[in-house]
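pls read this protein:
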Amino acid sequence: MRRRATKLDKIRWLIVYSTDIIHLAALIGLAELYLRWRLGLPGWAAGGAAVLLAVLVALAARSFRIAVRGGSRPTVLLAVTGVIALPLSAIPVVWAPVLWVAMLTPFGRRRTVTLAAVGSVLAVNGYVALVSGWSWALFAFQALLTALVVGCVLANLWLWRVAKEAHEGQEAKARLAVSEERLRFARDLNDLLGQSLADISARTAGAQEALETDPAAAGREMFEVRDLTRQALREVRATVQSYRALDLDEVLSSVRAVLEAADVSCTVRADTAALSAETRTLLATIVREGATNVLKHSEAGHCTITITDGVLEMSNDGVNGPVGDHAPNGLGGLAGRVRAAGGTLTAAPTAEGSYLLRAAVRA
């Protein structure tokens, strides 16, 4: 199954292709070659230079992709593009050294990039000065072009790092919330059972000591131990039940936030005021499982959740190819719970091309 693209993946490729647009602008060099050909540059030289320029553009885009993925410096790639840029600079095609400097930007230090940029500008303009005389216009144009491309590359890399840090911060926040909930549950169990188990242990030891000298007293102690054990069991069950109980409104809000974070537009229309606590918990569990299936098993762009008079309908447009009439595995156990509560649960594609999860329970 094809992995679903995350928001971070989409941001990464948006940044990569926006930088490719900067690189593809180097195709202006083709127009420059055409003009030079019309002014007397041999056809074979103009054609060869055009091919080299196209290769240079593609390699420049490849270099930025490596930088975004966090790869090591592509030394061979930089060397190859440097060799390609040399004959283009001799024509000269002013875009060629600019692209080479742009490729070096993500992997070099500021001093190295600055020296490379200044050196390429002076080298091309020095060559032009020897061949046809000095041109301040060409010098200013290439200097501005180099600064613009280098600045755009640095800005895109910075934007990518900010987006990545924000995404990682959201994941860390979610993991922290889970860890805090586990710690809270552990503290509650310790507070709940610690004293009870200590009392049970002490009374059991007392009964053991009194067993030989006063069996009746030992028996009374064991009855106390039995009562303490039953009380502890009731408290544990009550605590676990409270953790199992889900707040339907909170789950709906959380599911909508999660789906929209995954670029799935979510519409919620729910009337939950008249629902009993058991029904609310059951529907919350179904909504959570349904949202999981939307993220894992579909390519949905929109999801609609409605709850009216104990009837939950959760539909999405993410049907991808033929789908069977059976619900996903995660809903199998929930269907049994719904039937036990006197309701029904179905999950199947519709004639309109969407996928509908429907649960009807007593309000």
In short: The first strand starts at residue 265 and ends at 270. Residues 79 and 338 are 66 Å apart (CA to CA).
